[in-house]
Design goal:
By secondary structure, the protein is α/β, with parallel strands linked by helices. It has two domains: 144 residues, ATPase, nucleotide binding domain (Nucleotidyltransferase, domain 5); 174 residues, Nucleotidyltransferase, domain 5 (2-Layer Sandwich). It is 51% helix and 18% strand. It contains 14 helices and ten strands. The strands form two sheets. A five-stranded mixed beta sheet has the order 3-2-1-4-5, with helices on both faces. A five-stranded mixed beta sheet has the order 8-7-6-9-10, with helices on both faces. Strand 6 and strand 7 form a beta hairpin. Helix 1 packs parallel to helix 3 and helix 10 crosses helix 11. The radius of gyration is 21 Å and the shape is globular. 47% of the residues are buried.
Length: 334
């Protein structure tokens, strides 16, 4: 029986699972970050090579015959980038077939078990990505925090900072965000924000982290915070609608999968998202992913080998994923 290696190479960590075509997850491993835009092709390959070395110690590929290695990599968006990484990993010889793609496709597959649909990812950055029944792909957003990323945690944090300065000089209404952000940065005035922004320097994570404060203020009923979350959700819905149009999915039913920390803010975001998406694709349905992206890569590996993913396969994957704990240093079998 051949095995599948599935990898989610992200900006924070790299997840790996080994499983069978019947849905049984046999082992899980966690390694370091491997975002293509942050570490480059060499860095991605190094992280995955180290992970595969650990895998081979427990599951020698000469003995077990890995049929496919399916990898989703953050920041890999162009065919040339995928081929560059794929060629290097094929030379390792761990699997008969190596598939390299971006992290959006595996996030989608984690919510649809490899079937068509649209995924909206809203973490520090944001992007909408979809695949239709014919296998055609489209994306909207994902241009980074300077050029876009509307609806992301960074977008929410920046809107929060802007609301504080607007409240300070009378262009906006008073908001709980002002004192909450002052407390967060241990400052006592907008002047302190100015220094942080232009002298000490914010980075994008500093700004994105403020999205948590916005969610907390919204829970307390702050009108400004609620409006920011609604604006973020609307932007995400507009991006999803653009993907639906590009794929000709306006008149069909499909799942819209949500992924990323922004969706922890709740219904204010998701309601606005679906309100905008419904203007384009009224038969779409919001879906929270049951499986993590690495499982999405695993499901795509199963499909690549010509196997269907029915409820029995999903149930085995669900149970075995819950049973096995990942390790940063070794693999733990079931």
């Amino acid at each position: 029986m051949g095995l599948i290696i599935a990898i989610d190479a992200g900006g924070t960590k790299t997840d790996c699972v080994i499983g069978t075509t019947e849905g049984e997850i046999l082992a899980k491993l966690v390694s370091g970050p491997a975002n293509y835009q942050l570490v480059g092709a060499d860095g991605v390959v190094q992280v995955i090579r180290e992970l595969l070395h650990a895998v081979d110690g427990y599951w020698p590929h000469e003995k077990h015959g890995f049929e496919v290695m399916w990898i989703g990599i953050a920041g890999v968006d162009r065919p040339g980038e995928r081929e560059q990484v794929g060629t290097a990993l094929r030379n390792v010889g761990t699997a008969k077939k190596v598939v390299v793609d971006n992290d959006a496709i595996i996030a989608l597959a984690g919510g649809t078990m490899g079937k068509p649909g649209i995924v909206v990812i809203a973490g520090t950055g944001s992007i909408a990505f979809g695949v239709n029944e014919e296998g055609k792909r489209a994306r909207s957003g994902g241009w980074g925090y300077v050029l876009g990323d509307e609806g992301s945690a960074y977008y929410i944090g920046l809107k929060a900072l802007n609301s504080v300065t607007r409240a300070e000089d009378g262009r906006g209404q008073p908001t709980l965000l002002s004192q909450a952000i002052f407390d967060h940065f241990s400052i006592d005035s907008v002047d302190g924000l100015v220094r942080l922004a232009y002298i000490d320097g914010f980075d994008r994570i500093d700004v994105a982290d403020l999205s948590i404060i916005v969610a907390e203020a919204a829970e307390e009923g702050d009108e400004t915070a609620l409006r920011i979350l609604e604006q973020a959700g609307a932007e995400l819905g507009i991006a999803a609608g653009a993907v639906a149009k590009a794929l000709g999915m306006e008149g069909v039913a499909f799942p819209c999968v949500t992924a990323g920390g922004v969706f922890k803010s709740g219904s204010k975001v998701t309601n606005a998202l679906m309100r905008e998406l419904a203007k384009v694709a009224p038969m779409s349905e919001l879906v929270e992913p049951e499986f993590p992206p690495v499982a999405g890569a695993y499901f795509l590996g199963i499909r690549d080998l010509g196997h269907d993913i029915d409820e029995n396969v999903a149930a085995r994957a669900r149970a075995s994923l819950a049973r096995i704990k990942p390790s940063a240093s070794c693999l733990e079998g079931g």
